[in-house]
Amino acid sequence: MNTSFGIDVGGSGIKGAVVDLDTGQFMGDRIKIATPQPATPEAVAATVREIVDQAQWDGPIGITVPSIVKGQMVLSAANIDKSWIGIDAYELFHRHLGADRHISILNDADAAGLAEVAFGEEKAKTGQVIFLTFGTGIGSAFLMDGRLWPNTEIGHLAVDGFEAEHQASSAVKDALDLSFKKWAKRVDRVLDEYEALFNPDLFIVGGGISRRFDKWGKHLTIKTEVIPAGLRNKAGIIGAAMAVTREISP
Ligand code: BGC
């Protein structure tokens, strides 16, 4: 069977599972450990190691980080410890997981977007699609007929003077205890700006809060169609696992 291990490093949890690369299904349980605070490279890599050990996995591993990843270098750190900036991620994870382990690193939203193309919504495969994840931050993957333009970071675009993710991430909803309706108004304003600047055919929204899309999707008023991700918040792990064997990492 064609399997790999995917790990999604998020602001609040680090999650991993064995993924069947033919179907995109998890094989066995998903393992989740709270993200260490501060989320330094060494602390995160040690947690990744713990997850891999718990799963008793000795094959290839794909890892997402909530950062710009170019080559093997991590170039940004909005919601993890700033000491990630400039880190050689291959050196870091090889040191923790074994020098001859096959490892791949990519941005979390890019991984999720690619997984959605492969195993999620059919509509993700064609046209100009902006895939967004709402979680601790707002992540983005720009997809053109299923092909990725990696490392777009429109969660940091200023909307009415403030970064989009500081206004409309799902962490902001929690922090301010906003109702779905009030939070959806903020998301709507952000999407309105994205629509005006990028004119996609479709927005697909992922992240944990996409599971509750029925509660907030109806309050959106933008012209462009918005649909929840077919894979909901599993996409990051699946995309991480896919990156290892399909050479789709940026
Ligand atoms: C980061 C992105 C990431 C997104 C979602 C943003 O703050 O800059 O790289 O994809 O959060 O985690």
From TrEMBL:
GO MF annotations, alphabetized: kinase activity
A UniProt-annotated Pfam family: ROK
Keywords from the UniProt entry: Kinase, Transferase
Gene3D superfamilies per record: 3.30.420.40
SUPFAM superfamilies documented for this protein: Actin-like ATPase domain
NCBIfam families cross-referenced by the UniProt entry: PolPhglucPhase (NF045942)
Family: Belongs to the ROK (NagC/XylR) family.
Protein name per the record: Polyphosphate glucokinase
Taxonomic lineage: Bacteria, Bacillati, Actinomycetota, Actinomycetes, Mycobacteriales
